[in-house]
């Protein structure tokens, strides 16, 4: 059964073909269908960090039910407790934009730091095409304080090329800019994303 | 190992969750990594049609090497030799735009005809964002005669909402408009696609 994080199937394929060490870190690894499970099934040593203890537990239980030790632990992607060049692959899916842009830059520095030279990184961002861009109190630069399940959460939205400079020191493999229109809880929604797959030099 | 047809993982997930009959038809099913193999692995009865005998053989051999009978046969998606309402799921990936738009409409009529009521359809189109849109002799309406591997092939490019009316009689589940920038044989390329997942009423 494919998982819902469709763009990560391309990332997994790139990692498999890239002949990098089969160790992977997921930043924002918690929740009900952890994609680390797909990496584990392909022979990767997996590690995840997650801010929320409940989501961490749900992900680890998903793995345990499949005989997989996913190793999702509590952690903050802005301060990773791993040595430089620890992982062959690092990704963060639908997560990093839940921070102000200043923090996004700090987190990306950490993701790159723990990645091995030659290793692959996947990160995606919300874009200004998203139907929620403009909703809630604006903190400037398309950063908004919005409510998710009744709780205030920052959402940072990017212009299509705004995140390019984050990866100026890396080799770009794939950049996909996409608008997805579907229904969520019965209502039509439009989401805008830009996904990067880059390689550390 | 994930296959290269990343968007079809979402389609497979939708089909699995949709409780439709597990029978699937792929139109343009040939080539070196047939996605029918992923459907077969999930318990689907698979059928494919393919215009090219060599690509048909390659796909069936891929299945045979994995103990899968994919059943890819010679056929033309504009004239499908199947009864009405034969399949729970039908898809055509990176194929239908290799025809003039008049033929695309004929083919879509066939895809819908052989789909069961309640069944799911995936089709994708090239968009005018594609870096090759405008290349070669124009046949009008963003239809171009271009060379693929030295042979003349029609490519039809669509505006972002131009294909919407094809599915006016269906329920739209997902529409994804995407621009993918990567390298092909060393050169930077930009491809534009719009993918639809719709359900027959």
Concise synopsis of the structure shown:
The structure is a homodimer of 201-residue chains. The first copy, chain A, has 201 residues and is of the alpha/beta class. Helices cover 21% and strands 38% of the residues of chain A.
Instruction: Let me know the number of strands of chain A.
Output: 9
Radius of gyration of chain A equals 16 Å
- What integer is the average pLDDT of chain A? 97
Largest sheet of chain A: 9 strands, mixed
Strand content of chain A: 35-45%
Q: Give the H and E element order of chain A.
A: HEHEHEEHEEEEE
- Structural class by SSE content of chain A: alpha/beta
Shape of chain A: globular
Number of helices of chain A: 4
CATH C-level class of chain A: Alpha Beta
Instruction: Please identify the oligomeric state.
Output: homodimer
Unreliable stretches of chain A: none
Give helix % range of chain A: 10-25%
- CATH T-level fold name of chain A: Rossmann fold
Please give the most extensive interface between any two protein chains, plus how many residues each contributes. A-B, 25 and 25 residues
Overview of this protein structure:
Two copies of one chain form a homodimer. Chain A has 201 residues and is α/β, with parallel strands linked by helices. Chain A has a single domain (3-126, 159-181, 194-200), classed as Rossmann fold. Chain A is built from four helices and nine strands, in the order H-E-H-E-H-E-E-H-E-E-E-E-E. Chain A has helices at residues 7-17, 36-41, 53-64, 101-114, and strands at residues 23-27, 45-50, 72-74, 87-92, 115-127, 143-148, 151-158, 170-184, 187-200. In chain A, strands 1, 2, 3, 4, 5, 6, 7, 8 and 9 form a nine-stranded mixed sheet that branches. In chain A, strand 2 (45-50), helix 3 and strand 3 form a beta-alpha-beta unit. Chain A is globular and about 40 Å long. The A-B interface holds A 1-4, 6-7, 9-10, 12-13, 16, 38, 42, 172-183 and B 1-4, 6-7, 9-10, 12-13, 16, 38, 42, 172-183.
């Amino acid at each position: 059964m494919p998982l819902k994080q469709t763009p990560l199937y391309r990332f997994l394929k790139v990692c498999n073909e890239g002949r990098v060490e089969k160790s992977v870190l997921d930043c924002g690894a918690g929740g009900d269908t952890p994609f680390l499970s797909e990496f584990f099934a392909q022979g990767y040593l997996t590690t995840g960090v997650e801010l929320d203890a409940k989501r961490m537990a749900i992900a680890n239980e998903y793995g345990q039910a499949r005989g997989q030790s996913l190793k999702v632990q509590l952690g903050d992607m802005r301060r990773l407790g791993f040595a430089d060049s620890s992982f062959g692959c690092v990704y963060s899916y639908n997560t990093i934009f839940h921070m102000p842009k200043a923090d996004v830059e700090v987190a990306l520095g950490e993701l790159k730091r723990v990645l091995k030279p030659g290793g692959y990184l996947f990160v995606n961002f919300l874009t200004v095409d998203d139907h929620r861009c403009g909703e809630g109190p604006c903190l400037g630069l398309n950063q908004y304080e919005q409510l998710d399940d009744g709780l205030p959460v920052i959402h940072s939205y990017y212009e299509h090329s705004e995140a390019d400079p984050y990866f100026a020191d890396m080799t770009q493999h794939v950049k996909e800019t996409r608008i997805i229109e579907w229904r969520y809880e019965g209502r039509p929604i439009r989401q805008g994303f830009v996904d990067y797959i880059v390689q550390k030099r």
